[in-house]
Amino acid sequence: MDLKDLRINGKRLRSTLEKMARIGATPGGGVQRLTLSDEDKQARDLFVRWLKELNLEITIDEMGNIFGKRPGKNNDLPPVMSGSHIDSQPKGGRFDGILGVMGPLEVLRTLHENNIETERPIMVVDWTNEEGSRFAPAMVASGVWAGALERDWVYDRTDINGKRFEDELIRIGYKGSTAAKKWPVHCYYEYHIEQGPMLEREGKKIGAPKGILCLHWYDIYLEGEANQVGPTPMEGRHDALCAAAEMILKVNELPDRMGGNMVATVGEIQNYPNSRNIIPDKVHFTVDIRSWDDDHALKAWELVRKDFEDIAARRGCPIKIEETWRVEHSPFDERLVRRILDIAKGLGYFSLHMVSGAGHDASYMNQVCPTAMIFVPSIGGRSHVEVENTTWEDCEAGTNVLLHAILRSANER
Ligand code: GLV
Ligand code: MN
Ligand code: MN
């Protein structure tokens, strides 16, 4: 068979994704597979079983990253890698992450059943904790692997119940013995749903992002003074939740004040003691700032940080600020991005050159080797929600683009 006529099996891909979607399925049609939870373990076990069926060489490293390697004709050559994540948001969707792991798995199944050998080895990977919603920050395991984050710092991160990352990794049986340390990689492709509205709006099937915005995460801790809400006069209160409320609106106004080219969000808040008749004395909330321009995002932070300090002083609520995590914006390899646009065209798909507002492990992989991503449309531009959806036809189309991108790179000498 002429390699250019090779196609993945769309029906098999669909059935694979449907099997995964049963693990942690939510009543609203989504999935909840929080990092290092029982559901994450169950999905990993199934993934490993499927890797074994293809006789892949399996490695699980000390961050719980799972790699499946298909040998090439020349195993001294660095491999082509492709993957994403199995974990999900709380009440997340059935496609975010998992499509980017099942996609390359389907590519390997296609090569396997057609007895196609490639020059270089090909590796599929599941990166631990891409989402960062149970254990902040996100993309930690590709971050450690790439040498950008400290392993032990990540091990000590705790969830809302005080459980440690490393303890949970051990509990689910996925703390491997191999060091999480980068090796030479020829190139990395990450296949993902767009998670935004652009492809649908433009009537395009395939997106080829030129890169990913920078991501800056902060954690804010406020203290107030608790008291009975009835007898305590309004004057002289130190209400930590009111201070947080003012701060949250400052974050929401930030992109406008900065003249655009950024998004800024408070997505998580804990209020204590969280009783309707007690003045709140402790609040924790998060800030997420993203832009293509790292300096712009840093200037925005300086501005809003000053606002936070002013509000905290005026309301008599001491503030503690943690600058939790920063990843610089990631411009992808232009040659690979062009390759994806070319392949999409050759397969008869209209494509869009765009940017990724969502974070991906590809940001850290981009620090290790030439990297690019393939996007398919998200219906209604909805993601990180149970109604997240992508047509099976689009899942198949994107996987065919991935197949040919991997084939071209894996046959480069
Ligand atoms: C990852 O899902 C992110 O964009 O926050
Ligand atoms: Mn994702
Ligand atoms: Mn996500």
Structure description:
This protein has helices spanning 10-22, 38-53, 99-113, 140-145, 151-155, 165-171, 198-202, 240-257, 294-315, 334-346, 362-365, 392-410, and strands spanning 57-60, 66-70, 80-84, 122-126, 187-193, 206-212, 214-223, 263-265, 269-272, 282-291, 319-327, 330-331, 351-356, 371-376. By secondary structure, it is of the alpha/beta class. α3 (99-113) links the parallel β3 and β4. The longest helix is centred in the last third of the chain and has 22 residues, at 294-315. The two termini are 21 Å apart. One manganese (II) ion is lined by residues 89, 96, 131, 384.
Features:
12 helices, 413 residues, 6-stranded mixed beta sheet, 20% strand, binds glyoxylic acid, elongated
| Annotation field: number of helices | 12
- Largest pleated sheet: 6 strands, mixed
Report low-confidence residues grouped into runs of 5 or more: none
Helix content: 25-40%
Radius of gyration: 23 Å
Binned strand content: 15-25%
User: Quaternary status of these chains?
Assistant: single chain
Give the ordered list of helices and strands: HHEEEHEHHHEHEEHEEEHEEHEHEH
Number-wise, the strands total 14
List cofactors, ions and other ligands.
glyoxylic acid, manganese (II) ion
End-to-end separation? 21 Å
